Amino acid sequence: MARLLIVDDEESIREVLRQLFEYEGHEVREAASGPAALAEVDGEPPDVIFLDVKMREMDGLEALLRLKEKVPDAQVVMISGHGTIDTAIEATRRGAYDFLEKPLDSDRLLVTLRNALKAKGLTQSVARLRSEVGARHEIVGESEQIRKVLERVERVAPTDARVLITGENGTGKELVARAIHRLSGRADEAFVEVNCAAIPSELIESELFGHVKGSFTGAIEDRTGKFEQADGGTLFLDEVGDMSLPAQAKVLRALQEGTVTRVGGKQSRHVDVRVISATNKDPGEEIEAGRLREDLFYRLNVVPIHLPPLRERRDDIPMLVRHFASLMVSKDGFDVREFTPEALERFKEMEWPGNVRELRNTVERLLILSSGPKVTVEDVEDLTSPRTDAIDLGAELFESESFAEFKEQVERMFLLRKLREQDWNVSETARVLDMPRSNLYKKMDKHGLVREE
Description:
The chain is of the alpha/beta class.
């Protein structure tokens, strides 16, 4: 059992996190402000702290610095509803273990907690979380496409061969990576995930390879990188095509030599890491455009696995619906509801641009909002209709009181549309818009644009 501290001035956030972590058997304490958190750690120090960035009295970055002074061994995970590059960089420099954006996903929270505990050496808690995460990440389906994927997973898992997983957003690339790890000889070691699209280019090298104290302004202590954290286990490079070219060169060198050097350091460290990578892009197009190194691609693409979109395996949809419903009933306390045959047929007719991820979210919405003991085709029609928040451009824009306000509204609507089209992948949206990613982050912060549930 790990000791956790949740620091957030929103009671609803604290309550959700408390329920999630207490269900996993951990001891959870709460603090509604930075000063309250500092007082709370005077007793028994927590193992992991989940700390909000925006709080009254004392903001999260200041609280982070003071908490690290009082409990330097605690792993601190920052959470924010308006994450920016500058905030993420500063949090990392002040010793944060990780940075998560709201809305918070329960699976990602459990994975982050597991990795934080692994970094701290709490192996008992890691084993419990590994079991829980494994149960939530099963590959479900009986179609020919999924059988071929599972067959390749079973063949490659016992080896140390590198695997490149391709497929659209939401098809389950992370699930396949975890399945390979669970079936490998490294299953008892760490599975460390790096979302290359979510880490600013200024931070990616420090994130992957670590840094030494004093290597840059704000580097107040040595920090291990993801390669070292995954030593003996598996490193999953998600959206690997979004890495900067300098970072790609260093990853290539690490794969060739089996060693890493921390930013600002001189000593090379040997690492025994199996690398699994994933991308939602066409590697050939990325190489041709100069965004992906061809030599790195060949190093990563020893065994390719392609995941089909949900629209190409519609016969798996009823099984997936029942699986998600059963999981939500047993793990999340939802009421038991049966999906009628007509409802399942309607699911099979839908396009699912967000793939399995969208299907799961829809099942959850129906279990929450539908009435009666069964989910009917009428419920599906009512609760999966086009977005209720779709924007009537004419009505809203022409209510603007000035030309400046009109331009602000247009920019916000345009960015929101493009972010949704790219499934809120900021790097890909910035590429499509031909805009520096840092500028896009600033505009998202300016307009209050955050990923929707």
